[in-house]
């Protein structure tokens, strides 16, 4: 009796991956699909293109990839050894391929997988870069078929699906499930303040009405602070945003460690300068941000999220209270306590909620009936009684047919 080709086809381990290439840190949610428990993986944002000979000199804990004849070092090693940068001035798409490759390698390593992996990958991009996704998916699929050089050998995966979602879409979908039918009756804004940029979305009665992005992320603040203090600080020093946030929360000495002066008097002088400049920069940032969002739309509520939101929590609260618009911080997302193992808090909210939506899409496509939560002890939003839950965005717009490499 003949055996069909379908019966002798190689067995693949399915994985589902959601990626957020953040300006201060790349975050990944990955799981064995369908029944594996998701885990969080993070990597510093720096990247450096290097020569092949430089790769041969590396050893120990390092992340690098080789795609065709191009080699890239990623993360902390890129910054410390090769003067790599987060490339904040470039579109996320520009360095997305090597970053995604490096993150897929780290995910495979973390899950104990080698080849024989069937990957479904979701990438979050700003609204203005969504159209680049299709071409990126084709390039990633071709690279994975050919094999990507890594510290542990060639990485070869079957790319079953590559899906591009807008940053913030997962949080909006999460909010729609929480509100149920009420979501279709409201005009809801979502303000996402990240390191690299700020984005604003409006859902008018369940339909996306507007999506805009601007460069008013934490990076704008850092650049202004460095230029106005003019004491030799580096714009890509990741200590600066942490110190700015800490100082804004009341830690008067938080900026002291940034001083490069050799004497205590010099350090004290810098500290006074830093705190003075921070007040001006913070004020200018808040005015620019509010000026941008003031006339975007009339809203019933606004969701505010992103790491930079903590920096201007007070000013945003005052503005929206004055406008009579309720604020829902971080979409009231409940993070599973067993998921946030890296203590990233709200910084992983966007990719986590996007991953929830992506898993729903995959379950629908594969016909998988999910009977347990993604993460043990995950808090389910209470069901809305006497109402029909709104359709997911992907249900209304039509599911993107999945096939290898797209």
Report on the structure:
With 406 residues, the protein is of the alpha/beta class. The chain has two domains: 5-44 and 90-166 and 335-397, Nucleotidyltransferase, domain 5 (2-Layer Sandwich), CATH 3.30.420; 181-332, ATPase, nucleotide binding domain (Nucleotidyltransferase, domain 5), CATH 3.30.420. The protein is 35% helix and 22% strand. It has twelve helices and 15 strands. The protein has helices at residues 5-8, 52-56, 76-82, 96-111, 133-146, 169-179, 218-229, 239-248, 264-293, 313-322, 349-366, 393-397, and strands at 13-21, 26-32, 39-43, 47-50, 63-67, 70-74, 117-125, 148-150, 153-155, 157-166, 187-193, 198-204, 207-214, 301-305, 327-329. A five-stranded mixed sheet has the order 3-2-1-7-10, sandwiched between helices. It has a five-stranded mixed sheet with strand order 13-12-11-14-15, covered by helices on one side. Strand 2 (26-32) and strand 3 (39-43) form a beta hairpin. Helix 4 (96-111) crosses helix 5, helix 6 packs across helix 11 and helix 7 packs across helix 9 (264-293). The chain is globular and about 65 Å long.
Summarize the structure.
The protein is 35% helix and 22% strand. It has 406 residues and is of the alpha/beta class. It folds into two domains: 5-44 and 90-166 and 335-397, Nucleotidyltransferase, domain 5 (2-Layer Sandwich); 181-332, ATPase, nucleotide binding domain (Nucleotidyltransferase, domain 5).
